[in-house]
User: Which sequence fits this backbone?
């Protein structure tokens, strides 16, 4: 995805073609994070566009202390949080009991029994049920392969908090998945 | 510990099938259009007051300054001026005849006026620069 790196000095000089290279390089990640945090395609599209407008306006302030991608995702994450605050939507996690070891194995086995195409839809539905912060954390960690330090920069958290946050988000996702897969798990016992 | 490993294994399996989602096909075009529109809006700078108001204010200030500086004595508003416009009571004209503009008041008004104009110009330039897109 990143072979075609945007030329920042050219963008600053007003080259809109170069800016479109930057948008094309990062739009899918920004849109996916926004969609998973806001749970609405229309809003995610709007917020993703606002993110790139903000990126364009403040690109001259980007000093290269962090990766360009990390900087862009931080803007995207903050724009999503602003939108959630403005709409007064709850950003907190729903209280979910901790998942037990044997339940993880059951979910794993049940998942094997589902065809790959259906599995994608199932996973997306489960991620939609996560709190915005958990959804952003897992998406950036697994799909964008950001490390703990980069995740900390994006989410304004220290590495330990990111580690704990990731562990809890994984547990919550597994628990949600278990609720979706309950019939298959029961079927496996039968 | 095993539990954590199992959980990580499960997550790897989940995200192995997960993919990034794509926005609409015209996403990039829309972003570029929005940026161009914002650029044009910012370039079409419209002052709060129209030009003719500034001209009228400037003429009035110049006339006032000329009037104050042309007088060798401190300027007094003439009682007969108020009488000529036929006030029904003489109370106002009596009070106004005691009202005097000193030269120092003239200087003060001039200095304050110049400072306000200068500050407005500097603020205008500062805000225009900080809000400009490129």
Assistant:
């Amino acid at each position: 995805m990143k072979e075609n790196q945007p030329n920042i000095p050219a963008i600053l000089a007003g080259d809109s073609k170069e800016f479109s290279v930057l948008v094309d390089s990062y739009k899918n990640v920004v849109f996916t994070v926004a969609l998973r945090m806001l749970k609405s395609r229309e809003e995610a599209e709007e917020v993703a566009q606002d993110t790139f407008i903000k990126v364009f306006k403040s690109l001259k302030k980007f000093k290269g202390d962090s990766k360009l991608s990390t900087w862009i995702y931080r803007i995207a994450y903050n724009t999503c949080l602003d939108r959630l605050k403005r709409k007064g939507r709850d950003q907190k996690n729903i209280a979910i009991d901790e998942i037990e070891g044997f339940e993880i194995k059951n979910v794993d086995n049940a998942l094997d029994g589902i065809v790959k195409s259906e599995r994608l839809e199932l996973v997306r539905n489960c991620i939609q049920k996560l709190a915005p912060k958990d959804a952003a954390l897992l998406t950036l960690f697994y799909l964008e392969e950001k490390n703990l330090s980069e995740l900390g920069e994006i989410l304004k958290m220290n590495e330990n908090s990111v580690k704990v946050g990731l562990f809890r988000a994984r547990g919550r996702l597994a628990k949600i998945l278990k609720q979706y897969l309950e019939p298959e798990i029961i079927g496996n016992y039968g | 510990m095993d539990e954590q490993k199992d959980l990580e294994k499960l997550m790897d399996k989940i995200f192995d099938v997960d993919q990034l989602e794509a926005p609409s096909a015209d996403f990039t075009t829309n972003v570029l259009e929005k940026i161009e529109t914002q650029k044009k809006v910012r370039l079409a700078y419209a002052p709060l007051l129209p030009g003719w108001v500034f001209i009228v204010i400037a003429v009035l200030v110049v006339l006032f300054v000329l009037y104050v500086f042309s007088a060798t004595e401190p300027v007094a508003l003439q009682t007969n001026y108020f009488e000529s416009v036929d006030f029904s009571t003489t109370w106002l004209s009596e009070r106004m005849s005691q009202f005097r503009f000193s030269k120092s008041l003239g200087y003060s008004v001039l200095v304050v006026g110049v400072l306000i104009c200068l500050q407005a110009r500097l603020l205008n330039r500062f805000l225009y620069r900080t809000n400009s897109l490129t």
Summary: The radius of gyration of chain B is 34 Å. Residues 2-131 of chain B form one domain. The helical segments of chain B are 2-17, 27-43, 51-70, 79-84, 91-98, 103-131.
